[in-house]
Each structure stands twice: as C-alpha cells, then as structure tokens.
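Mods, move this if it's the wrong board.
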Amino acid sequence: MIAGTERSEVAHETGFRRVIRRNNSLSSTGRLVAFALIFIVSIGIAVAFATFGAWLILPFAGLEMLVLFIAFRYMERHAADYELIEIDGDTVKVEWANGGTLLRGAFNRHWAQVVSNEDGSRIALRSHGRELEIGRYMNDEQRLDLARALKRRLHAAG
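Not the wrong board. Structure tokens:
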C-alpha cells in the first residue's frame, strides 16, 4: 500500500521542511467510479446467474461487495495521511496525520539524533529517552536519503 511519496523540501540556512505523503493512484472520484463499476458488473453477473436458478451466488456477491466497500472506505480515510518534518531554529517538529488523527512531536535540535538501520528499513528521531519513528510512507532508499539530509541539517551551525 505504501508505494511512493510526494516530497517538498525547502532548505534555508538553518531551516528544513519535508512533507511525505502516501502514493494515491486514484482520486476520491476515481475510487468512487472504480467501486461503482466493479459493483455494477459483479451484481449484474450475480443477478444473471440467479435468474437461471443459481440464486446462492447473490449473497456471496453481496458479501464480496461489502468487503470491497470496507477496503475502499479504508483507502479513502487514509488518502490524506502525511508526515511533516520541520527544523525551525532550535526546534525539530514532527507532525503526523493518520486517518483523521493529528499527532505532533517536538525535539530540541541540539539534542535530537537521527537513528536508522543500515538498510534504511527504519529511521527515527531520538532525544532524552523518547523516540519517534519517521518515514513510514517512504521506501528504504528514500528513508536513507531523509536520514542523511536530517543529520546534515541537525548538525549544521544554527
């Protein structure tokens, strides 16, 4: 489900800002149209079979459409998820939007450390015993690039 990112980075002398988003291949309208087409075809086939006596196909087609509706609803709810990582002066701010929930964290820039696995499978910001994982919507290579950029910015003269 996490296939890519949309990034925007602004680098000033001491500032850094990166917005990381999910890769959404369909807009809200596109998801609705895709669901409607699948629904019409599936129910149409089920009704055709039911008219020839195979009526048991109808409840299974209905169950299939319910599961598909739940999946599309989940995708719609998480379509606007993002992570914002910002260094502004002496503060490192992290903000997540996940399914309508907004969470924020902040660290002192001089105490914050970037922790990452060598393969880029996980990166986090750590300070004073607190750790926040970042880069959830990125692939391993993008996480490593983010870790390098954050390390440069955190240690830059500010």
